[in-house]
Amino acid sequence: MTNKEKHEFKATFKRDLKQFTETLKEYVSTETGEWTVKGFIDIYKNIYTISSDTKIVSKILEIHIFPQLLAFADSIGYSIVLAEKQNWYPDLSFVKKDNEEVKFAVDLKTTYREPTYPGHINGFTLGSHGKYFKDRTSTKNIQYPYSEYTGHFCMGIIYTRADFDEARETGVYAVHELQPEYGAGRNIGARAVTDVKHLKSITSVIKDFDFFVAEKWEIASENQGSSNTANIGSITSIEDLKKGNGIFAQLGEQWFDEYWINYDMAMMVADGTTKRITKLSDFLAFKGRDDLKKKIVARMTKRKADAK
């Protein structure tokens, strides 16, 4: 497959994925913006609400939209291959049915708006910069070798956590419209049961969804996503996430790749001392490309202003 063909496949897939993602807000939300998922149900038709724990919310959101993802993939001529193990990259591999050489990595990322930092999210990770990222023929912790993917995408879901005075952290509800007769199935041990007339009256734990699609390099930051794992961190500005305006946006994917391959590995001398490279400006200086720093100055200045 030529570079031109790769570019054309990627551009088409990115366009289609963005168009599909725009339909998901209506799919997961009520008319008031609440999540349509209220909890889970037992055989007695009691509704157990879920907590706002991010891991729980993320997994249920992924399950919620998965049938839509399958239908979307089929509609554009792709099949979906799930990661064989829980911590493998990516979450979803889109493989073209009539040309299996064409593959796209899609990671699903869910995160909440920071209530004390308007316009920003709690950041997320964009995959490892370890073995499979450095050795692009490696099959360690990845579904297919990194180099076999025509593109690497993030499909993000941003939401607002409901205030705790709006929703109980967890609860059990006997919903009238689900009961064959009022009061049926209410004996569930010592746990209290609250009666509600309709499912919609149960407050959802999350609301006000935003969806976005970006290539991984477009929304990467220059920092790790966590201090104890080799994961690439994301930017946190919601506006920049939607626009794909990360710190590498003006430099391109190749600089993203080289920086993260060398992150905390390459050494440089500064002011007479040696140090590991963990900043993009240092990496550009290390590569003798101080002329490119102006391309990231505006982005870094904006980030510092936002942090104040």
Strand order of the largest sheet: 3-4-5-7-10
**Rg over alpha carbons:** 23 Å
- What is the oligomeric state here? single chain
Q: How many strand units?
A: 14
CATH fold name: ECO RV Endonuclease, Chain A
Largest sheet: 5 strands, mixed
The global form is globular
Q: Which CATH architecture is right?
A: 3-Layer(aba) Sandwich
CATH class: Alpha Beta
Q: Which regions are unreliable across 5 or more consecutive residues at pLDDT < 50?
A: none
User: How many angstroms separate the termini?
Assistant: 47 Å
Helix coverage percent of residues?
25-40%
Bin the strand percentage.
15-25%
Please describe what this structure looks like.
The chain is α+β, with helices and mostly antiparallel strands. It has a single domain, classed as DNA mismatch repair MutH/Restriction endonuclease, type II (ECO RV Endonuclease, Chain A). 28% of the residues lie in helices and 24% in strands. Strands 3-4-5-7-10 form a 5-stranded mixed β-sheet. A 4-stranded mixed β-sheet has the order 1-2-8-9, with no helix packed on it. Strands 6-12-11 form a 3-stranded antiparallel β-sheet. Strand 11 (220-224) and strand 12 (231-234) form a beta hairpin. The protein is globular and about 75 Å long.
